[in-house]
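tool=predict chain=A
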Amino acid sequence: MKKIGMLTIGQSPRDDILPLLKEILGEGFEILEAGALDDLSKEDLDRIEFKPDDYLLISRMRDGTQVKITKRLILPLLQKRIHELEGKGVRLTVIMCTGKFPQFESKGLVVTPQEILKGVLKASLKRGKLAVVYPAQEQTRMASEFSREGVTIYSDHLSPYKGKDDLEQLAARLSMEDPDLILLNCFGFGSDVKKVVAERTGRPVIQSNTLVAKVLKELAS
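tool=predict ok
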């Protein structure tokens, strides 16, 4: 049975998204989970000092609460987990985050979703308006990562971990902006968010976690 490493930037297990990813992958795969923050407490993270130029990331703790972290904090932790997963026989690992990451040391493949998403966006939208939805308002300034000639960017935010009270308001704003394509730019956004956004806007919506799961299945088969 082929082993696939699912590495979250928060804490494992990710019961909120793993069932859907397993459903897409189907039978014949053993999923090994790990989290960059598995050995840290909420109190440890509360002591993080954020700098103005920090690359901010959003994830989830084991108890379901949202946490804000920096890329400089988790990069060595992710590398440590990759080595641990590979010690268990994993040769295909996905970083369950759509942020920008460097190449990691690995005996196999380490999939970083942002490049997959950019490829699909470039192939799907040559010209027009792209809406990018982040999990935190502070991250919306990073939407320039998706900018290119002929494509204008609208960025917005919705927390996937603090309930869905703001989902209707987000869908209304997106409808007003009338983009050609919408990207849910976080692994925490589920099918419920996609359904509401797609119905309210009438536009195609890319759900990051399911798209990447389909690529994983191809790589692992």
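The first strand starts at residue 2 and ends at 8. Residues 115-207 form a domain with the Rossmann fold fold (CATH 3.40.50.2300).
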